[in-house]
């Protein structure tokens, strides 16, 4: 059930890329590289970049995971999150 809801939220993002996605905060995902095997990332914020004309240039998500007991933050794009959603 949770995966179905998350995929529906991912479909909202595909509609042009300029939508504000506040529902994605709190989603958990994994990355597909060897160095990140087993790490669970959590989306904690959305970072949107605008140009002088006021149109959206880039949307990134601030994510965090724990590494050796420390909280580490990173910036990820929407595609990475969609590919690694955890049910």
Describe this structure in words.
The protein has 87 residues and is α+β, with helices and mostly antiparallel strands. It has one domain. It is 22% helix and 36% strand. The chain has a four-stranded antiparallel sheet with strand order 1-2-3-4. The longest helix has 13 residues, at 2-14. The protein is elongated and about 40 Å long. The N and C termini lie close together (8 Å).
Label this structure with key terms.
87 residues, alpha+beta, 4-stranded antiparallel β-sheet
Question: What's a quick, concise take on this entry?
Answer:
It contains 2 helices and 4 strands, in the order H-E-E-E-E-H. With 87 residues, the protein is of the alpha+beta class. Residues 12-16 have low confidence and may be disordered.
Q: Any chance you could write out the topology, listing elements then pairs?
A:
Elements: H1 2-14, E1 28-29, E2 41-50, E3 56-67, E4 70-76, H2 78-83
Antiparallel strand pairs: 1-2, 2-3, 3-4
The rounded Rg comes to 14 Å
Q: How many β-strands, per DSSP?
A: 4
Strand order across the largest sheet: 1-2-3-4
Strand content: 35-45%
Uncertain runs: 12-16
The proportion of residues forming helix, as a percent range, comes to 10-25%
Structural class: alpha+beta
What is the terminal separation in angstroms? 8 Å
Identify the overall geometry: elongated
The average pLDDT value, as a whole number, equals 80
Q: Biggest sheet: strands, sense, closure?
A: 4 strands, antiparallel
| Total domains | 1
SSE order in H/E notation?
HEEEEH
**What is the count of helical runs?**
2
